[in-house]
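Researcher: Here's a chain I'd like modeled. Treat it as a single chain, no partners, no ligands.
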Amino acid sequence: MIFNDRLKMLRDEQSATQATAAKEIGIPPRTYQRLEMDGCKTHYDTLLKIADYYDVSVDWLMGRTDKREINR
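Model: Modeled as a single isolated chain. Structure tokens:
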């Protein structure tokens, strides 16, 4: 799965814990853990919050492109 691998990579780059990232995004720590571990599906709103928190595009998170940056 691309999404969970990229999510973990982003968190590791910030040296953050799963609990810290979950709190910043506004989701329960267990939910964040499941997103990283098995790539469980998430709501659109949560996906946007994750992309905003890590400052990457949703397309990159989902593996649709190799370009991390957001088109503005």
